[in-house]
Amino acid sequence: MEFFDFNDVVLVPEKCILKTRADANVEARLGNRTFKIPLVIANMPAVLNEETAIELAKKGYFYIMHRFGNFDNVAFAKKMHEMGLYASISFGIGQRFIEEVNKLNELNIIPEYINVEIAHGHADSVREMIAHIRNRLGDGVFIIAGNVATPEGLVALEDWGADAVRVGIGPGFACTTTYKTGFGTRGWHLSAVAKCAKAKRKVLIADGGLKYSGDIAKAIHFGADWVMSGYLVADCKDHDGEQYNGQRTYYGNASFQNTRTKSRVEGRSVQVPISEDTVMDRLREIQEDLESSVSYAGGTKLEHVKKVKHVFLRT
């Protein structure tokens, strides 16, 4: 099939060689660090706050802090370094973020990871922001950029200096970009990842559209190195935000709930039942699920998932 998504494909098991699934290695490298699993919780206020970011960093998971509201990237990066933790922050486009880069330079605070994102990342404004970061903060910063939908977009961001590229426009559960604009990767997101993977020279992060832990294995099978998801932890009980009658509000970054403006809305708010899991509970569950994926792949490491066969459920 040329175009497909997560629900259109299933992976074919191979003979298991592990004595126990716990022996499987599902760690993933990003920059100079190794993390427990190749999943980053989406940098959304709906599912990530400062306290959660600190806990993730302490326990060996990767995070990207969101950039919304009055969030102070400089103060956050300084605090993380003072705690002996890595700093991973987000920039958009505009004077506010240019000034934050300049302030980081003045204070000699160099975050380990910087995420540069706009809705349509294949844009000159992203190229200029990456160049500004490199000029002020040097080559030691691991830059993640996005979002893109095509191999051409991915290659451009790599050429502009990104170390990792986020692939996915509009596939997220709380995103309405495709409905509002007609554009995006919704409905063919996994094939977009596969197409981009054939062109990549660096790290590819499959962003959005995941509903189950098994979708992580599918994304990796088709060429992703990492995945990003908010939905996989949307129902966890320890999030901030509104809770009523056993449900909480999960909202997209481009929703009115987040931006508090009715202009350029490309996200929605939905009610999700609150589970008994904390974020850490859910991440441990996902880790175990990935270990099982490795066992079904007939290997010892997550990379073996790339080598199995797959079956399309529709043609």
From TrEMBL:
UniProt domain IMP dehydrogenase/GMP reductase: residue ranges: 5-307
Entry keyword set: NADP, Oxidoreductase
Any one Pfam family match given in the protein's UniProt record, by short name: IMPDH
Coiled-coil parts of chain: none
Superkingdom as given in the UniProt entry: Eukaryota
Statement: the UniProt record of this protein carries the keyword NADP: yes
EC number(s) given by UniProt: 1.7.1.7
GO cellular component: cytosol
Gene3D superfamilies in UniProt: Aldolase class I
One function term, GO molecular function aspect: GMP reductase activity
PANTHER family given in the database record: GMP REDUCTASE (PTHR43170:SF5)
Protein name: GMP reductase
Organism placement in taxonomy: Eukaryota, Sar, Alveolata, Apicomplexa, Aconoidasida
